[in-house]
């Protein structure tokens, strides 16, 4: 159990800067998810915490101790890899016990710790099997068992569920959450799956191009995305983004096509400013007046329906409605955003305008 | 129906013919080792076993003087060959695993230069460098020693390359998991890499043991005393040149004995090899 502090950490590969200064302090027992698209540097950051990648600049401290120059084994961390990385020639028991054996822990205690982890993960029946005799989900559990028995200061998960099928992934996600609640060990979890991020995280660090776009709780990130990138990355289907301009009195946003959407509070200082306007599909509803769309596609998901509409000026507008479809393709529909559902972003920088 | 039978038959006939062609000389050797030298000498060797087998093998094994010459006992030559073949096989495997491990898992200056240096030795057969090699071994005082027999043949580019290719298939994550578990390079080698290489080692051992056992030119050069004679050179020395008559019965018995260790290695290791394949742990 420990805090993990990442202070202005940078990573360069030659002239290419992969991580451009990340700062975050992870509380003891906190579950932090590093979320971002492929190549955003999230795995690199995790591997720097693990000690598998060198640190170009800044400091990483685990439990108050700067670990920049410590070997992975001395950092008191355990890692779960995407492809499990189990030793194929060892039994499940030996896989879990290996790290303890190297550390010279007495046999009886190894036995006790592995048995306990096996019980938590329901692996007791498989202790004598080889990884090749296990299913993907079971292997993933063994990989977690190997991390648990170490009783480390922090868990590092590198996309641990990406190799599992959808159903198992959901199941393992719940298991990881339960496990972390039960053990209370500080965890860093890398994923590109927003559902994993939303459900597991205490806080999410959204990364893009080596920069932290936003750090916040899942709901903060959803309700108040700090940038257009975050707005587009979190939420499914993604947020609608329209070009707009704040009117001359600072009371409403004008969008092409003549729509005038009133702002929740007037912002006279921004009068006339061009903006990007974000509205989540689930915050649109059928209304008497508003955006007039021609429906191009209707996706019925069962519990809800996603409607792809086209605005008169050619832009696509997504609307998510509850329940089974009540409209058909080529229907015309008028929709409007609900109160307080507008997100404003700077037209140039893409940062949120509060 | 009829055509399929013919089609089935043809490969069998070819196969049997092949086996006969390959096996016949060995059969003749086996038969020859059971007759007395007179029968063989007259050129009228029958195709059925004679009664002299036990005596011939005992004579060859113990190295009592033949009818016409003195020979090094087979037991001495077999021991020498065994030591040489095992040293070469095990030495080659050990050296090439270590060098392949270095080239595959470590980043150090001139890594690829070393790799190519090893690779380049593939292009020089033993015979080409035999005089400098002899000079080095002689200067080191290793003539007529087991070390002199085995060490110059131990370095192996082929095995190094094979192991390197295999090591490159071991996923990086496994190395990283081991690092986090606290295993250093030596532990990783012993606990993870070697067990995973078992089948490769077994296969190479078979090939290299036979390679070592069948060495001819080098042992011929580097040994001069009968005590250090290996069986392959020993057999050729038994066969006189020109007009002298040979103790064919002892030569043939010796040849049969010389075949046994390689056959044993193939048979024993083949089981191992297949077992390794069936386990398919990788």
Automatic annotation (TrEMBL), chain A:
Keywords per UniProt: ATP-binding, Cell inner membrane, Cell membrane, Membrane, Nucleotide-binding, Sugar transport, Translocase, Transport
Occurrences of domain ABC transporter (ranges): 4-234
InterPro entries from the UniProt entry: AAA+_ATPase, ABC_transporter-like_ATP-bd, ABC_transporter-like_CS, ABC_transpr_MalK-like, ABC_transpr_MalK/UgpC-like, Mo/tungstate-bd_C_term_dom, NA-bd_OB-fold, OB_MalK-like
Family annotation (Pfam families): ABC_tran, OB_MalK
Similarity comment: Belongs to the ABC transporter superfamily.
Domain of life the protein comes from: Bacteria
Signal peptide positions on this chain: none
Organism, as annotated: Azospirillum endophyticum
Designated name of the protein: Sn-glycerol-3-phosphate import ATP-binding protein UgpC
GO molecular function: ATP binding
UniProtKB/TrEMBL annotation, chain B:
Domain of life: Bacteria
Transmembrane stretches, start-end: 9-27, 82-106, 113-131, 143-167, 188-213, 248-269
Record membrane topology: Multi-pass membrane protein
InterPro entries (UniProt xref): MetI-like, MetI-like_sf
UniProt KW Transmembrane helix keyword: yes
UniProt subcellular location: Cell inner membrane; Cell membrane
Keywords: Cell inner membrane, Cell membrane, Membrane, Transmembrane, Transmembrane helix, Transport
Record flagged with keyword Membrane: yes
Domain ABC transmembrane type-1: 78-269
Family under the similarity heading: Belongs to the binding-protein-dependent transport system permease family.
Oligomer and partners: The complex is composed of two ATP-binding proteins (UgpC), two transmembrane proteins (UgpA and UgpE) and a solute-binding protein (UgpB).
NCBIfam families: PRK10973.1
Function: Part of the ABC transporter complex UgpBAEC involved in sn-glycerol-3-phosphate (G3P) import. Probably responsible for the translocation of the substrate across the membrane.
Record protein name field: sn-glycerol-3-phosphate transport system permease protein UgpE
Organism annotation: Azospirillum endophyticum
Gene encoding the protein: ugpE
């Amino acid at each position: 159990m420990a805090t993990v502090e990442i202070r202005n950490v940078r990573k360069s590969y030659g002239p290419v800067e992969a991580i451009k200064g990340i700062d975050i302090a992870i509380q003891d027992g906190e579950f932090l998810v590093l979320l971002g698209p492929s190549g955003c540097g999230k795995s690199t950051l995790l591997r720097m915490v693990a000690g598998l990648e060198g640190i170009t600049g800044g400091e990483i401290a685990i439990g108050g101790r700067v670990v920049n120059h410590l070997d992975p084994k001395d950092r008191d961390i355990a890692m779960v890899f995407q492809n499990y990385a189990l030793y194929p020639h060892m039994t499940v028991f030996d896989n879990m016990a290996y790290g303890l054996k190297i550390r010279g822990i007495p046999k009886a205690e190894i036995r006790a710790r592995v048995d306990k982890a096996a019980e938590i993960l329901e692996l007791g029946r498989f202790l004598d099997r080889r990884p090749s005799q296990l299913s993907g989900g079971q292997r993933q559990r063994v990989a977690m068992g190997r991390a648990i028995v170490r009783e480390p200061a922090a868990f590092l998960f590198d996309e641990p569920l990406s190799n599992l099928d959808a159903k198992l992934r959901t199941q393992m996600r719940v298991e990881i959450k339960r496990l972390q609640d039960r053990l209370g060990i500080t965890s860093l979890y890398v994923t590109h799956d927003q559902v994993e991020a939303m459900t597991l995280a205490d806080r999410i660090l959204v990364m893009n191009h080596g920069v932290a776009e936003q750090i916040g709780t899942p709901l903060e990130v959803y309700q108040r995305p700090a940038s257009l990138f975050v707005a587009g990355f979190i939420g499914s289907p993604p947020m609608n983004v329209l070009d707009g301009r704040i009117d001359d009195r600072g009371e409403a946003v004008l969008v092409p096509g003549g729509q005038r959407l009133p702002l929740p509070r007037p912002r006279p200082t921004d009068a006339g400013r061009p903006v990007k306007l974000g509205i989540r599909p689930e915050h649109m509803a059928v209304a008497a007046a508003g955006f007039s769309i021609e429906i191009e596609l209707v996706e019925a998901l069962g519990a809800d329906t996603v409607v792809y509409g086209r605005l008169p000026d050619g832009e696509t507008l997504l609307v998510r409605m509850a329940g089974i479809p009540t409209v058909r393709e080529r229907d015309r529909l008028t929709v409007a955003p609900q109160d307080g559902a507008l997100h404003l972003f700077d037209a140039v920088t893409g940062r949120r305008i509060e | 129906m009829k055509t399929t039978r013919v089609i089935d038959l043809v490969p069998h006939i070819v196969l049997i013919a092949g086996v006969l062609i390959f096996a016949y000389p060995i059969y003749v050797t086996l038969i020859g080792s059971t007759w007395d030298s007179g029968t063989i000498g007259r050129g009228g060797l029958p195709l059925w076993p004679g009664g002299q087998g036990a005596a011939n093998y005992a004579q060859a094994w113990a190295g009592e003087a033949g009818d016409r010459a003195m020979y090094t006992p087979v037991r001495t030559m077999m021991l020498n060959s065994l030591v040489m073949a095992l040293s070469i096989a095990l030495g080659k495997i050990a050296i090439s695993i270590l060098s392949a491990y270095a080239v595959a898992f470590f980043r150090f200056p001139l890594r690829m230069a070393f790799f190519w240096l090893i690779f380049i030795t593939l292009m020089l057969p033993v015979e080409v460098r035999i005089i400098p090699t002899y000079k080095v071994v002689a200067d080191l005082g290793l003539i007529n020693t087991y070390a002199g027999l085995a060490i110059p043949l131990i370095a192996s580019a082929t095995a190094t390359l094979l192991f390197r290719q295999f090591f490159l298939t071991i996923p990086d994550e496994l190395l990283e998991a081991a690092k986090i578990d606290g295993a250093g390079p030596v532990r990783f080698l012993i606990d993870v890499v070697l067990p995973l290489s078992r089948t490769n080692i077994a296969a190479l051992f078979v090939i290299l043991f036979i390679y070592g056992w069948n060495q001819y030119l080098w042992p011929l050069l580097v040994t001069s005393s009968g005590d250090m004679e290996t069986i392959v050179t020993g057999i050729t020395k038994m066969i006189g040149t020109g007009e002298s008559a040979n103790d064919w019965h002892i030569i043939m018995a010796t040849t049969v004995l010389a075949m046994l260790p390689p056959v044993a290695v193939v048979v024993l290791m083949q089981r191992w090899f297949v077992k390794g394949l069936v386990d398919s742990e990788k």
